[in-house]
Amino acid sequence: MSSGKINVSVENIFPLIKKFLYSDHEIFLRELISNATDATLKLKHLTSIGEAKVEYGNPKIEVKIDKEGKKLHIIDQGLGMTLEEVEKYINQIAFSGAEEFLEKYKDTAKDSGVIGHFGLGFYSAFMVASKVEIITKSYKDEPAAHWSCDGSPEFTLVPTDKKERGTEIILHIAEDSLEFLEEGKIKGLLTKYNKFMPIPIVFGTKQEALPKPEDAPEDYKTEYKEVENIINNPNPAWTKQPSDLKDEDYKSFYRELYPMQFDEPLFHIHLNVDYPFNLTGILYFPKLAADLQIQKDKIQLYQNQVFVTDNVDGIVPEFLTMLKGVIDSPDIPLNVSRSYLQADGNVKKISNYITRKVSDKLKSLFNENRADFEAKWNDIKIVLEYGMLSEPKFYEKAGDFVLYPTVDEKYYTLAELKEQLKASQTDKDGKLVVLYASNKEAQHSYIEAAKEKEYEVLLLDSPIVSHLIQKLEADNENLTFARVDGDVIEKLIQKDDAQLSKLSDEEKESLKSVIEAIVPKEKYSVQLEAMDSKSAPFLITQPEFMRRMKEMSQTGGGMFGMGNFPEMYNLVVNTNSDLATSILNSENEEVKASLVKQALDLAKLSQGLLKGEELTSFVKRSFETLR
Predict the structure, then answer these.
(1) Does 97 count as an annotated binding residue?
(2) Which of 57, 84, 262, 372 is the most exposed place for a label (fewest CB within 10 A)?
(3) Which tens digits make up the pLDDT trace of 180-214?
(4) Is 278 annotated for ligand binding?
(5) What is the pLDDT of residues 347-366, one digit of tens each?
(6) 76 is in an annotated binding site
(7) Is 175 assigned to a binding site?
(8) Does 96 appear as a known binding residue?
(9) SS3 string of 266-295?
(10) Domains identified in the chain and CATH numbers
(11) Beta-carbon neighbour count of residue 111 at 10 Å?
């Protein structure tokens, strides 16, 4: 028997571990399972190179609860430790056995899957245990060892008679941590952190149906047998080669990741790179609504199949955090407790790689089956538009596949759009004007006015469209976007053939005075325009610049304070309309006022601006004219 003090540089490291190093106590199980996995994978490597003269077999890791004895057991069949190795690796905190192993076998162990880095994971057990025991036997022909510690620097280490190779960790659960003796709690932690560990993890048993005999009678009742309950999938899809997987395999893995998600993913992107860093994973494009209030934290970060976090900011470009899936890399730098990222040059390289890989996949999908890509556009556009605004490298490639749909469900790339519109929608100053609507129903009358002139109208309805078109205008000379309700169509795309007004300048001034006396000045600016006599007599528009700045301010950006700026509209009066003439020529002031109010309400109604008391009054007044 030997005893002594654990070799640490402070009098008692355990309170420090418990309070500062691991803020989340539940990760103790992740760390101990990771250690057991390391021990097993190390043995696998040593047997494969002939250094360990033992049978590797089909090892597993067992987790057992002894509720009555208030103990939790973690048992592996890995390489185990000798008395000397226990002294070295357990009693000298922060001396990482995994790190030493990788250094010793660096030429052959690069792809062994060994997880550990810091040598502190084992001591996380003291966050929940008042006493910890290790019973271990090395694959070497040496006596087994029994180590015990009660959470102070004092320990005992004695030989023991364990016969089987491997290690058993026994946690005597502390009174303030008895929740970790509950089956549901442990199952939840194993599922959260160890669902895809590379070694089978056994937790309890389950009933498995026996095959039905061929000669079974009609009233045969299914028989069951009790089998070990393996709670993990040691070979998840992302660890396999894309060539070995079919589309259904990817969908099946998606359901495994998100069992409560009932919609199928639109498509997937398989990440697989081994230089200049190691990274694997699968990203899925789910169906997304056209808003930015999308729940993030759906991409899971793993390190050698050990779950780390679902906060992947920094690794995954921000615009892709709206996706789902898995990323696994041993090269992502974590803090000592493997709980969050540390700043590192590799992180930016990984982020850039993911951006490029996603861009290439989108371009490939677009080229291979454009019709299918167009059909999925509304479900993915918010991610791509956000990517264009937030990620310069993505913006550079986006022109190859980002689409601009019309209200008639035709889809163009920006290059195609320019070519399609240049003949008809270039104004008198040589500027190409791209008309768009944000709501096909609400802006129907304006869209129809544009169509009458055979103009194309895009449907751009995402919440960040104002930011996007601002960027496109800045990067494309002689290109401007104008929403169809921003002005009368003749002014949105000004041509040389200006419409003549049938009213004289004096008549126009008189008409404007009449209307301004009735229309609220604080909300409407009256403008007289000579338009086609068949066009609407009164039209409400909102200046493009004011509306766009207001929208950008509301979603972050634009001019400071514009989001709270009061709504202002232009009331455009068609001087060539019969109504304009009727208002001007009427000698009855009440009739004039009635005509103006009714026309204004009709214009407001077409813009969805007539509401509440004003709408009630309008309906009542309209019914009265039918009597």
Answers:
(1) yes
(2) 262
(3) 999 999 999 999 989 999 999 999 999 998 888 88
(4) no
(5) 788 888 899 999 999 999 99
(6) yes
(7) no
(8) yes
(9) CEEEEEEECCCCCEEEEEEECCCCCCCCCC
(10) 2-204 (3.30.565.10), 237-375 (3.30.230.80), 403-498 (3.40.50.11260), 505-542+566-627 (1.20.120.790)
(11) 10
